[in-house]
Amino acid sequence: MTDRQNEVLAVLGKLADAWNDGDAAAYASHFTEDADYVTFFGMNMPGRALIESSHRSLLEGPMKGSKLVPGSGEPKVRFVRPDVAIVVSGGGSSLSGGAKPEPGRESTLTYVLLEESDGWRVASFQNTRVSDPAAGARPDGERRTLG
User: Fold this and answer.
1) Confidence (pTM)
2) Most CB atoms within 10 A, among 46, 76, 111, 129?
3) Do strands 106-116 and 119-129 pair parallel, antiparallel, or not at all (unpaired)?
4) Average pLDDT for consecutive 10-residue bins of the chain (147 residues)?
């Protein structure tokens, strides 16, 4: 990894640290003011203020005590311009504090980061749950949800 790639990945580490500390304000501080945050449900939460408030609800409620943990594979960092980086990585959450995402909680994560005057910030994020589409198919062709 280059120094620039490590700078970008350090932001992702700070995001995980803030989540793991249950600190929604610190978590949101790593996003641009007008960031887009797309959840694994496909819902967009636009703007740092909404990212903070929604994560406060999560971190004080159903995700309290959860940990963000790396998934399989190394993150891919690509610079589309010197001040714009795209990162695709694996990751997920552990409700029990384990070192790996729990079953059904692993995602492919896509980040677009911008270098601002005070460092790198996430301008766009998308969380896509890893699943096996064939596992949701039935012999009669009807789809079922994955648990």
Assistant:
1) 0.86
2) 111
3) antiparallel
4) 95 96 97 96 94 96 92 92 97 85 86 97 94 63 44
